[in-house]
Amino acid sequence: MKIQIIQCKSVLTKSNLPKVDYCINPYVGCLHACVYCYARFMRRFTGHNESWGDFLDVKLNAPDVLAKELVRAKRGTVLLGSVTDAYQPSERKYRITRAILEILLEHDFPVSILTKSDLVLRDIDLLKQFSDCEVGLTITSTDESVARNFEPHASAPHNRIKALNMLHQNGIATYAFIGPILPGLTDLEAVFKAIQGKVNFIMTESLNMKCGNRHFIEALLLNKYPKLLPLYKAGFSKGYWDKVEQTIRELVIKYQIPLKGFFRH
């Protein structure tokens, strides 16, 4: 893995995502190295020859740049980590995300965080002080082996679920991002059971295999889940995802967890 320090010229980026005004990515790249990662297209803008998941650029001056940008910025919701994970392993050392949160808190900008790491608990003291803050953790599967294969350097699912519970108990709005849903591998009811009482809502997403990740997914399936490979090679129709959505809506009623969207690709 290649880690290097860089200097950025800007850090607060306007967003086109629903209900989000800005994005902040404290890092370039992500060492969680998730096999299905949709952000791998970013590699072509980085100047890196390494594979996605094998490099990381640390925006060391990001907090200072943000402090200057917020003087002029109109207040709006900030998503931390749209094409990186703000709490990936290197955050333990560099603490860029924490420094960014401290600055956002001074201006009381609404904050939304989506991560695959229980490291977010380190900053619970700051998160509790925001007047508007929500934290989501991705739960692709409750099966530890599936998570280890597809998300090799992310926190284990049981630790993410514990993190959701602790955040929720501390009065912070929480949600589970169930996605991408991996056909034949994601047990939706098991996820609902695990998160019940720990989240305010859920968001769900179908698997996208059109962003340069197909080769990596199929290689993993061939190695670990060969019986599923023909299913993935054949692709998934609208009818398939219609059935998945129906299952989700039935589980939403059964477990009384509000659904804020099923995103399809």
Q: Rg to the nearest angstrom?
A: 18 Å
Shape: globular
Distance between the termini: 31 Å
Residue share in β-strands: 15-25%
* Largest sheet strand order: 2-3-6-7-8-9-10-11
Q: What is the share of helical residues?
A: 25-40%
Q: Spans with pLDDT under 50 lasting ≥5 residues?
A: none
Outline the structure in words.
The structure is a single chain. Helix content is 35%, strand content 19%. It contains ten helices and eleven strands. The protein is globular and about 55 Å long. It is of the alpha/beta class.
Question: What descriptive keywords fit this protein?
Answer:
single chain; 265 residues; alpha/beta; 8-stranded mixed sheet; 3-stranded mixed sheet; 10 helices; 35% helix; globular
Helix/strand layout:
Blueprint: E1 2-6, E2 13-14, E3 22-24, E4 27-28, E5 55-59, H1 62-72, E6 78-80, H2 91-94, H3 96-107, E7 111-115, H4 124-127, E8 133-138, H5 144-150, H6 157-169, E9 173-181, H7 188-195, E10 201-206, H8 214-224, H9 229-234, H10 238-255, E11 259-263
Helix pairs in contact: 1-3, 7-10
